[in-house]
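Hey,
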Amino acid sequence: MEPSSTRRKIHERAFRNAWLLDAAEAVFLERGFAGASMQDIARRSEVALGTLYKAFSGKEELFVRVMERRMDRFVEAVRGVTSEGPPLARIERLVRGAFDYFAAEAAFFRLYLAATQGFPWEIRSRLGEKAAARYEELIGEVESLCRTALPPARRRSARVVALLLVGGLNAAMAEWLGRKTPRAPASVAREVWSNVRRLFGPP
């Protein structure tokens, strides 16, 4: 069992890092990656620049950690809305839940698009292995949902359908949030779902 002093230090480090990541996220959302600086982040977090550099090597590491944390939250949100019910109903909740989530987190989604251009193959090179693994985990969970929702004769295509579903959601949300006056998320989600539903055969 670890000594209480060691546990306390671990807890303090985790709290400090979360505080610094909160500050970094706020700066990135305001200024974008290119416009942000370590000085801005230190100022926002109210710590000395040297203290910030002791915790993180630079703004590149901070950006990756911020995006990893946000991806974790999104995956957990997806799990929350797809945990129960018939397969097609769970997929519909996934579509609607994604639009609800990013309607509230539009600035983060734009930051994600700026980093990856919306292409999944850019995630590993731009955001690192952990983010890439998290994305693959999301695809795997959607694939499992698709496999149960598809007719038996088409279940071998579950991964392709999952990739189409997630890729289509990315593209639809990028187009939606890119408009000067975006439509209501529920309206867009309803239209997207009416098209996604066709991937699974006739009602």
